[in-house]
Amino acid sequence: MSKRISLTLCLLAYVFLTACGEDDGSKAAASSNYVTVDKTTINSQGQGGDFTVALQTNHEWAAKPSDSWIVVTPANSTLQNATITITVKKNDQFAPREGQVTIMAGSAREYIKVAQAGGDGIPDPDAISCPLPGYSLSWNDEFDSGTSPDPGKWTYQEANPGWVNNELQTYVREKTPDGTKVADLKDGKLRIKCFKENGKIYSARLYANVRTGWTYGYFEAKIKLPKGRGTWPAFWMMPVNFTAWPDDGEIDIMEEVGTNPNYVSSSLHAKGHYHANNTQVTAERFLEGAEDDFHVYALEWTPDYIQSYVDGEKLLYYENDGSGKVNWPYNTPFYVILNLAWGGTWGGMNGVDESALPCVMEVEYVRVFQK
Q1: Do 98 and 160 reside in the same domain of the chain?
Q2: Residue 236 in contact with residue 249, Cβ under 8 Å?
Q3: 51 & 133 share domain
Q4: What pLDDT sits at residue 124?
Q5: What is the spatial distance between Cα 50 and Cα 73, in angstroms, rounded to a whole number?
Q6: Can 288 be counted among the known catalytic residues?
Q7: CATH number of the domain encompassing residue 66
C-alpha cells in the first residue's frame, strides 16, 4: 500500500470519528434542554380573561396555542426567565371548551391545559341551579350578548290585529316598516316593546325552541311587567304539535292585565277546563311591585302534576286525574312564549289608555331545567 493511500485512509478515519464525536455531543446538549412553568392548568369563565404564567428554561423558546380563541404574549423569546400572558377570548357558545398551549424550548416541551366554561354570560352551567332538587339546566337565555334576541333560540310571530282574543296589536318580525325594533336587548335584559307608529300598535310575540319544545321540567323567567290600561303581558306555553284549542292544552305560567295592576295569575286550559265555559284552572295573587321590579315566575311540570310559583311561593297546583287527554293533554312537547299584547278580550275589558304607550315588558332571563 502506498504512503499516499495510507494517508488518505487515515484522514477519512479521522473525519469519521470526529463527526461521530460531534453528533454525540449535539445529542447530549439537546437532551439537557429543559423548560418549566408555574401553572399547567388554566380555568377560565365564559367571558374569558388574561392569565399569567412564569416559565424557566435554558434555551430560546416559543409558545404555540392549539386554538384561535387562545392567544399567547409574547409568542417567543430568548429570555430564560420570562412571564407569558395567556388571553382566553369570550366564549360565545353555551358549551364549555378545552385547548392547550405548548411551550417548546429546543427538544424540551411543557403543556398548559386551558379549560373554559360555557358562554352566554354563564360562568359555569353548574353555577345556575334549580330551586327544586333533581333538576339540571337544559336550556337558557341570559340576554347579555348582542342587541337583538338570538335567532337560534327565538322565533317571531307575525299576525295582524284581531288574530286572537280581539287583540289590537300587530305582531311583526323584528322591525316595523319604519325600522323600529319590537324587541331588543339592553343592559342584559330582553325588552318586548309595545308602541304606536303611523296609526298602528306594534308589539312582539316570541317563541323559544318552537320546533321541538320540552316535555316536563322546571321553567323559570325573571320579569318586570309593563304599566298601563290595555297591557297584557304573558309568559306561557303551547303544544308543538298543535291541532285544536283547547283540546291540545295551554299552560299559562304568568299573565297580568294593566287594567288590574299587580294581580298575576297562572292558568291551565284543556277540553275539560277552559275559560269559555268558566271551568279553567286558575290561581291569582296580588304581587306588590310587579310593575316596578323584577319578579321570578316559574312552573314545575311533571307527569303527575303541574305547580306554578311566584318568587318561590306556590300559586297554582293541578294533579293528573288519570282521565286522559280531556283533562291532561300535558304529556307532549310544549314551547315557551313571551309576548306583550294590547287590548283584547281580557287586556281591554275596561278599554285601553293609549297615553300608556310606549310601554315595555323586560325579561332578565329564561331558564329551563329538566331531570
Answers
A1: no
A2: no
A3: no
A4: 57
A5: 10
A6: no
A7: 2.60.40.10
In this predicted structure, the answer to whether residue 233 has a pLDDT above a threshold of 80 is yes
Closest-CA residue to 353 (of 263, 289, 258, 264): 258
pTM: 0.69
Backbone angles phi, psi at 98, to 5 degrees: -135, 145
- Three cell numbers, residue 27: 445529542
Same domain, 273 and 158: yes
Look at the block and give the residue holding cell 312564549: 337
pLDDT-derived band at 8 (thresholds 50, 70, 90) equals very low
Task: Using the 3D structure, point to which of 67, 87, 116 is the last residue of a domain.
Answer: 116
What's the CA angle centered on 314, arms 137 and 256, to 5 degrees? 90
Catalytic option among 142, 167, 255, 362: 255
Write out pLDDT tens, residues 275-286.
Answer: 888 888 999 999
Is 362 among the residues known to form the active site? no
Sign of torsion, CA 279 281 283 289?
negative
Instruction: Indicate the helix (H) or strand (E) that contains 208.
Output: strand 205-208
> What does 223-266 look like in DSSP terms, one character per residue?
EE---STTEEEEEEEEETT--STTTT-EEEEEE--TTSTTEEEE
pLDDT of 47 reads 81
Peptide bond into 333 cis (omega under 30): no
The DSSP bridge partners found for residue 53 are: 84
Range of the domain at 103: 35-116
What is the tally of structural domains in the chain?
Answer: 2
Which residue in 359, 368, 232, 351 sits closest to 301, CA to CA? Answer: 368
Query: Distance between CA 299 and CA 368 in Å, rounded?
Result: 10
Q: pLDDT by residue (tens digit) across 324-352?
A: 999 999 999 999 999 999 999 999 999 99
**Identity at 260, one-letter amino acid code:** N
Kindly state whether residue 14 falls inside one of the protein's structural domains. Answer: no
Active-site entry in 220, 250, 256, 291: 250
For the chain, the C-alpha Rg in angstroms (whole number) is 32
Q: Amino acid letter at 153? A: K
The answer to the question of residue 144 being in a domain is yes
